[in-house]
Design a protein that fits this description.
The chain is of the alpha+beta class. It has two domains: about 15-60, GTP Cyclohydrolase I, Chain A, domain 1, CATH 1.10.286; about 70-195, 2-Layer Sandwich (GTP Cyclohydrolase I, domain 2). It contains six helices and seven strands. It has helices spanning about 15-30, 40-55, 115-125, 130-145, 160-165, 185-195, and strands at about 70, 80-90, 95-105, 110, 130, 150-160, 175-180. The strands form two sheets. It has a five-stranded mixed β-sheet with strand order 5-2-3-6-7, sandwiched between helices. The protein has a two-stranded antiparallel ribbon with strand order 1-4. Helix 3 packs antiparallel against helix 4. The mean pLDDT is about 95.
């Protein structure tokens, strides 16, 4: 398994959170937000949220280890999981990207637990992202784990940088996809996209 290095885990998470909280407070003050009884703890809350939840995958040196198992039942038809929840953060404006993911693969010698597909999506979403890169990260990691090219990933998401700023288009939906192997033909693509819509 290749080791995709994100960054070194901070030596002291508490120091990191204090540093984040300090800068959040400075941002609030610069914006003219009054630090009062209601907002006194806001910098600490935001720091904890950023470090422990929203960007938690930045705290690890490697991708999660996903155990693959022998395909003992010799299942060879497509396995498709859709409506995998996606919440990530646009790296350009630090606002949400919210949507869903479809993952499909045709097992050869290896399979993985269904919940692991969700875990892979969650891992790559818990860092500042762009949708195109996120699609390819999920796609390439599945290839690596499953040792097959028969993989498809489709992401449909709303970008809050479009929804709440600039053009303010509230219904715009962005779709990205990656296909290979048996899924990389027009009929398979049409079937997957039709299934994803229903």
């Amino acid at each position: 398994m290749s080791k995709e290095k994100i960054q070194d885990k901070p030596a002291n998470s508490q120091d990191t959170k204090l540093k984040i909280a300090y800068h959040i407070k400075e941002i609030l003050l610069a914006l003219g937000v009054e630090i009062n009884d209601s907002t006194t703890k806001t910098p600490e809350r935001v720091a904890k949220f950023y470090y422990d939840e929203l960007f938690k995958s930045l705290n690890f040196k490697e991708k999660p280890r996903i155990a693959a198992y022998e395909n003992s039942h010799n299942y060879s038809e497509p396995l498709i999981q859709k409506n995998i929840d996606l919440i990530t953060t646009c790296e350009h404006h630090l606002v949400p990207i919210v949507g869903r993911v479809l993952i499909a693969y045709k097992p050869k010698n290896r399979i993985i637990g269904l919940s692991k597909l969700n875990r892979i999506v969650e891992y790559f979403s818990k860092m500042p992202q762009i949708q195109e890169r996120l699609t390819m990260q999920i796609f390439n990691y599945l290839k690596e784990i499953l040792k097959t090219n028969d993989i498809a990933v489709i992401i449909e998401a709303q970008h809050y940088c479009i929804k709440i700023r600039g053009i303010k288009n509230k219904s715009s939906l962005t779709k990205t996809s990656a296909y290979d192997g048996d899924f990389n033909c027009s009929n398979a693509r049409i079937e997957l996209n039709e299934y994803n819509r229903n």
